[in-house]
Amino acid sequence: MSPSAEVSARPSISRALPYQADGDGLSRTSLPLSPPTRLTSVSADQLIASLRSLDRKDAALHASVAEAVMQLGIHTLSPASLADLFCVLAEARHPAPDFYTAAVRVLAANVQALPPLSLGELLWACHRVLPSETASLIVPDLVKQATFKIYDFKPQELVQLLTALAKGPSPSAPEMLLEGAHSQLTLYISRGLLKGGADLTQALWALARLGSYNRAVFDAAKRRLLALPPAAAGTGACCGGLGTAATGSTASASSLDGDDASDGSSSGGADGSNAARAEDGEGGGGGAPAFEREDVVQSMDGSELARLAWAFVTVRQQDERHRTLHDVPLLNTIVDRAHRILSSFNPHDLITLLAAYSSVPHYELRFYHDAATALLGSLSGGSSSSAGGADAAAAGQEGGLSKADVIAAAWAYARVQHRASKPFVEALLSEALKYTSQYEPEELLHLARTMTSTGAFSDPLMRYIVQRAVTCHVGSTDTAAGKGSVNGSAALAMPLFDAVQLLELARILATVQHHNTEFYSSAQADVLRAVNDAYMAVDIEEQTTYCGCTDPNGLQK
Q: pTM (2 decimals)?
């Protein structure tokens, strides 16, 4: 399950910057727009402070500032000030390619001088506005420097760094950086230094997006989310390593977690000196603060709940001990909160939450039924038009669900075999007809399985799937002889059904023949002939290194 859950907003920065506390920020009218040379008398910090406080869509002001900095000389700014200005312009998506290119050259030579906060911000900004060729000049150095300074990142700075890495074009991070992030996050979560649910959810989502799982981090997060006391300090569970299970005052937490005891499998690196650095950077003094019970989940909105559920079910399934079984109390808490604020969910977040729960699966009949009722109003009337392409994609944005959301919702309800919301599923299948020419064969099979698993049915959609499969499959002798809504020119460009997919479709057709016995009996025969064509078209010698035959010289084929 991988429904798309991408967010383009910039991560919030909770730490006040030095120039924001001086009270010398400039008003909009105090920055003349022309000529730009008049801006050269204003300090860099004043420019940045003013830009942060004004409308990010003020293109004229951003253009004047960028031009003034170029005339003054980028080298006159300190690396931190230049990075701040770069991030402000990137946040506004101001088109200043010359400024960005020149700034990247200067910053790439001064990465070592950037503080942790600037590293995370700049990494995010580079992914936001730079083409891949230009970003490659500085992003590797930023990641390398962040790895060296990973134990100097404060909680919100670390969350921002992980978010920037997760939102890159190809989410990835060095193993050494992730190991340090795991140990620091475990410490920060256990000590309650990630206040509220936003930062905690963002950190877990970023780790899941990066494909990085650490049991200590997610166990500490679960305790925090369920308002349970952290693991005992002597166990090492708060510092990246997993010691023995907590006892005494934390007996209830241990019984909930079941086999939380360590097997030494954590990726740590947070020793006593690391903990001391964290204390000096955030808490001051020695010793962990007293545990404060905070009902984090009950303050979350729909987007945070969806991300939290997606993060847990995505990475927990990588755990060899099937930790999702021990996350049932947390999953129940999330779904209870989601049920109370169901009307405030946007369709994408609600579908993401449903898909996450279906993948475990964690099935709540009433929640799925009420969610279907809420989503029914988001559909665009079940248009039966089969026109695909850009027009259909635009229609999905203006009204109704996107293609990815349609597939995710259909998969979620089919996965748990939910049969109590047929009106919604039938409307969803009608909505799917808007994107017919955009589907991959496996996506069409998802839609077909939805009909057999939920009891809903869409005759136009099933006829299209049959026609597409018979027309566009491996070994087809007349691909251009399309039927119905699959015309010859479109069929040539469509992905082909393979033999296994065709056989699965034939099995599905055997369960829907009662809707139209004459048509679907004939369709099943056509699909089975296509299965034979597909198998006959496969070269066995290309599929395996050993086919049981030898050539005339006695050598294995």
A: 0.74
